[in-house]
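Run log, item B.
One chain of 343 residues. Sequence copied directly from the ordering sheet:
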Amino acid sequence: MLFFECDYAEGAHPAVLERLCATNMEQTEGYGTDPYCRQAGNLIRTLCASDGAVHFLIGGTQVNTAIIAAALRPHQGVLCAGSGHINVHETGGVEASGHKVLPLPGHDGKITAAQIARACDAHRADASREHLVQPGMVYLSQPTEYGTLYSLDELRRISETCRVHGLWLYVDGARMSYGLAAAGNDVTLPDLARLCDAFTLGGTKTGALFGEALVITAPALQNDFRYIMKQRGAMLAKGRLLGLQFLALLEDGLWLRIAAHANTQALRIAGAFRRKGCPLCYPSPTNQQFLILTPQQAGALTAHCHFSRWSELPDGRLVTRFCTSWATRTEHVDALIGHIEAL
C-alpha cells in the first residue's frame, strides 16, 4: 500500500538520527539553554539576517497558541483565513487560551491586505465595538493549508497594513521549507524577518522527529516569552534534542534539498492527474496537491494508496489531497502514476 496522506508519517531524516545518536550520552543544560540550541539559534539568525530571538518548541499547535497568547491582550483576537490551521485543525487551541479566532473568507487559502483593513475599519466604526473582540494580530500560513504561497508583494502589503492598524503579523511556517524550495517562490527568510513580527520554521514536517523553531523579531514580543513557553507546556526539558535536529537540517541546506525533492514528486503526481483530465483545485507549487476526482476514481485509487478526502463538491465529486514528504520514494510515485494512468 502506498501512503500519500501527510508529510509527517516517517520518523526522521538519517542525518538527524545520526546527530542524536552521536550525542546521546552527553550531558548538557536543559530547557533549551544548551550549546546546541545556542548554535542552532545563531545559525537561524544568520540565515534570516536577523538579530531576533529564537526559541525551539515541540509542536505546531504549541507554538501557535504560545505566541498568540504572548502577543494579544485579553480582549483581542487573531484574524486569519477561514481555512487557517488555527481555525480548523487545532481543536480550538487559541480559543482555549482565551483569544478568539476571527476568520476571513480566503481565496486559495489566502487573505488580502484589503480584507484585513476592512475588518479593522469595520470594528472601529462599530458604535458597540467594546462589546466585540478587537482584532490584534494577523495569522498567515506559508505555505497555506492548500499548499499555495503568498508572494513577496502580497506579504509586503499585508505587513504594511498591519503596521498601519497596529496589528501583530505572525506567519506559521510548519511547511516553510516546502514553500522556500518551491518554483516561483520569491519570499526569503530575510524577507520574513523584515516584514513579520514572528514566524516559524517547521521541523516536524521536514525531516525532524519533532520540533518547530520560532523566530521573534519584534522586541516587545521577546520579553518574558520563555515564561509563556513554560506555562503552556511548550518547554522541553531535554531541549538539546531540538537544537541538534535543527543543526542537522540547516547546517548544509539539507532542509531545503529534501523539501525540493518532495515538491518535485508532488508535481509529478499532479501532472499525471492533469493528463487524465482530473482538475486541480488549487494552484499549489508545493508538496500538497489537491485534485478533484469522481467517487469512482477515488474508489479505484483507494485500493492502492492512502490519501485524504478533503471535501465533497455539490456535483458529488471529491476534493482529495495527495501529500508528499522529504522521504517520499521516487519508485512509490512511479507506482502511483501507474495507477492514475489506469483510471
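Observations after the first pass:
- The chain is about 45% helix and 15% strand.
- The CA atoms of residues 280 and 291 lie 5 Å apart.
Flagged for discussion on Thursday.
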